[in-house]
């Protein structure tokens, strides 16, 4: 396979954004091919900057463009959400610090996954990354206590997970809480990613944790190797449909990483191909300099195939977070997610269909002591639901 991505179907406006994001100095911006500034749909340019959540970093780059290559209204339009995001991140920082303090007082170990702590860690400035909520990781055993604390603080639980035989523990990975007055969303995670799949235990994450330098109150982050595992898994699961996730990889790879440790973790959790996918995309789209010991991840055919598969999400503004997702996109994404799995993960995923679903209980309610019967009954209940759906269409 030729080691070069086919980017021909990416909009010209997104190509211009990528070129601007690559520039670290005024000379870099001046060196951009002037042809890229011609015949640009500037409204689409703005929409793409917002969709990909890169407008905070882009904000500083736009001011470096000279000769009015970029209309003044474009700079002004992007400047407004940048300022709003800065205020939002300051607000989230205060809430993050308060929640960390409350959890620590009740002896709940808490790791910040994203939010202001990640922005400060990767970019050195909380204004350069967007966050609409706080994502935290805790031990699953402390989930009920965490819920009680948030409810005491005025948060309302948004996710009421339907479950049978405790399948929620591995089929899901977080519960969402929203504060109706503060308009802040907090996602409490007990896993990095939805299951089934192998990942480090919370104890391992906690042992490798780092303390953020953003706040006076102790706030903890994943260790850098675990953070790489998380960011690559998260970006891949969403098809890298927002350039911001690749910018995160770009920033993290530029730091002093223990490359051998990262490779060890990726191998242990069957994610070498996803690590390679992230590096290929970051290198090809953002000129990310590859860490020497990790370059070999980009020499295999599978990561290149996965990276090319992710370009689909950049050819239009694919939004996987807002329902309804177009049927064609949903079908493609389903196939892409399966392609990301290792052979072991695919085997577990297929076997997981034999485990009862909440829909089985809805189809045939049984008392709790008889829930074990859903295992032999599942194929029949599935066939019944399918036949009913076909009869109604």
List keywords for this structure.
Renal dipeptidase; single chain; Beta Polymerase, domain 2; alpha+beta; NTP_transf_5; 393 residues; globular
SSE arrangement, N to C? HHHHHEHEHEHEEHEEHHHHHHHHH
- How confident overall, as mean pLDDT? 92
Which descriptor suits the 3D outline?
globular
N- and C-termini, Cα separation:
43 Å
Strand content: 5-15%
Helix proportion range: 40-55%
Short description:
With 393 residues, the protein is an alpha+beta fold. Helix content is 53%, strand content 6%. Among the domains are: 98-222, Beta Polymerase, domain 2 (2-Layer Sandwich); 356-392.
How would the blueprint of this fold be written?
Layout: H1 12-22, H2 26-30, H3 42-51, H4 55-62, H5 72-105, E1 111-112, H6 115-123, E2 133-137, H7 143-152, E3 156-157, H8 168-171, E4 174-179, E5 184-189, H9 202-207, E6 210-211, E7 220-221, H10 224-237, H11 243-253, H12 259-268, H13 272-286, H14 301-311, H15 327-340, H16 343-352, H17 358-363, H18 374-392
Parallel strand pairs: 2-5
Antiparallel strand pairs: 1-2, 3-4, 4-5, 6-7
């Amino acid at each position: 396979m030729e080691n070069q991505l086919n980017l021909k179907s990416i909009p010209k406006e997104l190509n211009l954004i990528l070129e601007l994001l690559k520039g670290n100095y005024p000379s870099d911006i001046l060196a951009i091919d002037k042809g890229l500034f011609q015949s640009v749909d500037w409204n689409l340019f703005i929409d793409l900057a917002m969709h990909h959540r890169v407008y905070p970093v882009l904000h500083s780059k736009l001011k470096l463009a000279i000769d009015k290559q970029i209309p003044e209204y474009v700079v002004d339009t992007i400047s407004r959400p940048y300022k709003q995001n800065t205020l939002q991140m300051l607000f989230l920082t205060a809430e993050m610090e308060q929640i960390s303090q409350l959890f620590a007082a009740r002896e709940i170990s808490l790791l910040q996954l994203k939010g202001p702590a990640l922005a400060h860690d990767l970019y050195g400035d909380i204004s350069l990354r967007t966050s609409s909520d706080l994502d935290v990781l805790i031990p699953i055993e402390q989930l009920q206590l965490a819920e009680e604390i948030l409810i005491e603080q005025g948060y309302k639980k948004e996710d009421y997970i339907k479950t049978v035989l405790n399948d929620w523990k591995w089929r899901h990975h977080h519960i969402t809480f929203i504060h109706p007055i503060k308009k802040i969303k907090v996602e409490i995670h007990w896993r990095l990613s939805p299951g089934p799949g192998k990942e480090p235990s919370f104890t391992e994450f906690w042992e490798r944790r780092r303390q953020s330098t953003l706040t006076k109150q102790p706030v903890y982050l994943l260790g850098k190797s675990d953070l790489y595992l998380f960011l690559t898994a998260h970006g891949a699961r969403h098809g890298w449909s927002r350039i911001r996730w690749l910018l995160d990889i770009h920033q993290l790879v530029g730091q002093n990483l223990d490359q051998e440790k990262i490779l060890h973790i990726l191998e242990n959790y069957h994610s070498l191909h996803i690590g390679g996918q992230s590096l290929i995309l970051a290198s090809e789209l953002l000129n990310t300099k590859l860490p020497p010991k990790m370059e070999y991840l980009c020499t295999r055919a599978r990561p290149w195939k996965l990276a090319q598969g992710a370009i689909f999400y950049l050819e239009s503004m694919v939004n996987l977070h807002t329902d309804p997702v177009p049927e064609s996109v949903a079908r493609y994404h389903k196939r892409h997610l399966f392609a990301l799995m290792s052979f072991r993960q695919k085997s577990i995923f297929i076997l997981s269909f034999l485990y009862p679903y909440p829909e089985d209980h809805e189809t045939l309610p049984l008392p709790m002591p008889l829930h074990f019967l859903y295992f032999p009954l599942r194929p029949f209940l599935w066939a019944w639901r399918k036949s009913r759906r076909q009869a109604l269409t």
